[in-house]
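job 3f2a | input accepted
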Amino acid sequence: MDDGPIIPVMFVSAIIAAAGRSTRLGGPTLKQLLMLGDRTILQRSFDIVDGQQEIDEIIVALPSELAWSPPPFLVSARKPVRIVDGGARRQDSVAKAFALISTRADVIVIHDAARPFASADLFSRVIEAAASGGAAIAALQASDTVKEATAAPGLRIVARTLARDAIYLAQTPQAFTREVLEDAIELGREAMNTATDEASLAEQAGHPVRLVDGEAGNIKITTQQDLRVSEVLAGSREPEARSQGLSVRVGTGYDLHRLEAGRPLIIGGVQIPYETGLAGHSDADVLCHAVTDAILGAAAAGDIGRHFPDTDQQWKGANSIALLEAAVAIVRGTGYAVVNVDAVVIAERPTLLPHIPAIRANLAKAMGVDISAVSVKGKTNEGVDALGRNEAIAVHAVALVAQIPNPRSLIPNR
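job 3f2a | predicted structure (414 res):
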């Protein structure tokens, strides 16, 4: 019997460029090791890559002192990780990392450690575009009028105004097939070819590079101003953001699922041992669904039924933590970031208390916030109605989102 063509499984390697010396940021601590909330910049970026389903292995280029004694999270990762001592230039670090990738690698995705807020959805879109076209980068279309300047001693004069609809600001991740990246790296070995990213080397080597819509929240931490913005996005400086006149919005979410035999009970990404589980088209994670609706509602970005309808077979049995991550990307695309979430799970049984730390950690990671910004409480319905009879579980959630600031808005008046 003919089962149809066999679709080959793609092997994806990731390179994290983290060997920089933070010369523009300044300070005694390497930028990669600065804290954003409960994690360093490097760990936040690494966690994004480590959690990406399509990626099979990770190579991290580090400064020599970190390469010899890497942080513990690199040693205990879920995916295979190799560490390489970085080079003098970014392209040198990438070339050294490329030498360590698996011979099975079909696509290589490269990400800057200094971009700790890229979403899982962005990685997926860039990888898919590179697999079909050879090379792809995340990029944002310019929204401001763009001027090209003619430099003169002590004076800058506008040489011409560029058509902004043709101007894109490059981000990472950037992804390439093995053959394209090999050509780019070979070109970059020449001393005169110093490039700010691998895409420019691929272009010089004659390969077309596709543009994939980037994310406003996927900022690169280069200066102290960038660091201040990142602290807002990481949830550690929300009051200052509000004091700067940034838009803050509140959204509510509610969901209810029936309990039935033969289903797993999944709440907040944690499978809880119990004799019944929640019925639904996806994994029926009632907490994730309520939180997803709350953050989408806060950003006026629709609801879970609009983006992930139960009439669509692609969401059959879907992991609701992944749906929440996708909703966070949608919210960021509107120019907002999640600040905090508070949720009440109404269930007669089982008790949630032993599972709440893991539930909070799952939600925090999915939303890219500190765990201290996630509150989950369990309540009973005192035996009243279907909830009280333990026929269903319901969740009420409230989310706060804040406008992603323009770095200039956080510069104090002088």
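job 3f2a | The two ends are 76 Å apart (CA to CA).
job 3f2a | closed
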